[in-house]
Amino acid sequence: MTDKFLLLKEKAAFIRKEVLRVAVQNGAGHIAPSLSTVDLLVALYYDVIRISKDWSGSAEWERRDRVIFSKAHGCYALYAILCDLGFIGRADWENFYKGSFLSGCLERREVCGLEVSCGSLGHGLPMAVGIAYAAKRQGGPDHKYRIYCIIGDGEMQEGSNWEALQFAAKYQLSNLKIIIDHNRLQAMDFLENVLSSGGRDGQECTKELVRRVRAFGCYTKVVPGHDVRKIVQALRGVNRLASPRSPGPQCLIAKTIKGYGLPCMENVPKFHFRLPTPEEMAMGARL
Fold first, then answer.
1. How far from 261 is each of 15, 70, 79, 283, CA to CA, in Å?
2. Which of 37, 66, 178, 245 has a CA between 20 and 30 Å from the CA of residue 48?
3. Could you tell me which of 261, 287, 284 has the C-alpha nearest to residue 33?
4. How many CB atoms lie within 10 A of CB 167?
């Protein structure tokens, strides 16, 4: 029997190629922040979450898990996955950034798997907290779904996120699973050069983020963000943490590389919104 994690790794490689192909051919610039999320999204959509295209329009649809993609400028991998799963049409994905309904930042279209509109940073997590709180208050079998929020580490500089975490901890929202894409780069520089402390090796930056998230009431775990096996294991682990021992929200801090898969982009701040040149593409890829 083929190892499922090998299949997930192959799927992640396919999604990266799709992101690069469509983004370059259509002139869409947010490639690097999209590439850092590929393995996280593949783990969620192909192994962990409860969602099915066949549920659309049925009572079961209400029981789906919700994925709130807060770092909405890095949405290309999400689009590619939703196309692969049949939620988004192939023509719409191929014409992304060139006239289809898919925009550079997410716009809500539930039937396509796009749960909320995001763009301005710091909005996704508060909305995810609201959804999780409503589900908990409503109760019953139709509201047992989990809410996963993917957020950038640079985005965690927004004060609205910390207010949301306080609320989630106060009301013990164990149905909320937060995934921080910890690639250590925000729009144009490393976090350590903007607001975070520590050296360029990133160790102190990670420790500081862990300390803060734990202080705000979240169970917190650091995972390698490009190891699909460990991501799946960690996600399935936090899904079992809804207990008196850990009654509040859970947070995975995924250590990723911005631009992962393209040597010309990896950890290079200028590629936040920039297309690679033919010469840079000739440097090869680890896809």
1. 11, 22, 18, 11
2. 245
3. 261
4. 18
